[in-house]
Amino acid sequence: MKVAITSTGQSLESKLDQRFGRCAFFVIYDTETGGVEILPNPNKDAEEGAGPASVQLVASKEVEKIVSGEFGYKIKSLLDSLRIQMVVYKEPEKTVKSVIDMLNKQ
Amino acid sequence: MAKVGQPRSVFLHLEEYEVIRLCDFENLNHHEAARVMDVSRPTLTRIYAKARAKIADALVTGKQIIIEGGKIYFDSEWYKCNVCGCLFNQPEKSVTPEKCPLCGSGSIVNYVPVDDSTQVTRRAPSDICVCPGCGYEREHEPSRRCKDEECPVCGSHLIRKNNLLAKDI
Ligand SMILES: [Zn+2]
Ligand SMILES: [Zn+2]
Q: Is 0.80 topped by the overall pTM?
């Protein structure tokens, strides 16, 4: 299963970005293969519609789960309709790597 | 090419997205799609026509399509993990989660963010504080500034509902 993790930087040692729509990077982690893809977020500085545009971006990667600190209003209904699970994790000091380790322990 | 000053985006409402998904992607007929969305068939046809017009506009004039929340047909429930503290939803309606999707612990509880939602929706938007993080709503208390208040569900700062459109995380 692919999981999107919002990241403040482009390494796995970067911190979990607390914003979804305007995060700096998306780390797409594949729990089956262990593969990692790091995507800069083109909606980072968007004036409008960053949330829905970011949903489209991660949905195009066939992600089934998203881990972020905050999703923003209206995003839940959109993700519900796409059947993508939201995991709200308010831990700004955690690294992307530590989130991946948690996912792997299951 | 869109000219400078013209809107570069087309906003597709959630129900318009849903109607396209059902009719053109899942290949349901209008009768079936109307039943899934719980609307009358004329209403479905109207939403469909609107959706097609917007998509055609985006395609021909090179605009970006942005999907916006519209009427919500399905609202998943929230759960909280007692071990890692994360909050999560279960988008697959028929499934009850047994473990935390982050840490795998089995210690999870159902979370109900809104206690009197039926009353809240009837009030004016200016009288409601809403959480931009998870959608939690409550009545605004005149003596307090809601942006100083934290959401009891996810901890985000609350904002007044009528200011919501400006807030986009
Ligand atoms: Zn957990
Ligand atoms: Zn909240």
A: no
> How far out from the chain centre does Cα B162 lie?
16
B35 Cα–ligand 2 center, Å: 32
| Residues whose CB is less than 8 angstroms from the CB of residue B106 and which lie 6 or more positions away in sequence, other chains included | B98, B99, B100
Determine which of A88, A100, A106 to mutate to test the interface with B (most B C-beta atoms within 10 Å).
A88
Residue B104 backbone dihedrals phi, psi, to 5 degrees? 85, 0
Residue A102 CB neighbours (<10 A): 22
Run of H or E including A12? none
**What length does chain B have?**
169
* B99 CA from centroid of ligand 1 (Å): 8
In order of their start, the domains of chain B are 8-70 (1.10.10), 74-112 (2.20.28), 128-168 (no CATH)
Q: Which residues does chain B have within 8 Å of residue A87's beta carbon, measured at their own beta carbons? A: 86-88, 101-102
Domain carrying residue A41: 2-105
Q: Tokens representing B8? A: 């570069």
Question: Could you read off the pLDDT of B100-137 as tens digits, one per residue?
Answer: 999 999 999 988 765 433 333 344 556 778 777 777 77
Q: What is the C-alpha to C-alpha distance for residues B65 and A79, in angstroms, rounded to an integer? A: 16
A5 forms beta bridges with: A27, A67
| B101 closest CB neighbour out of A49, A71, A85 | A85
Q: CB distance from A102 to chain B under 8 Å? A: yes
Number of domains in chain A: 1
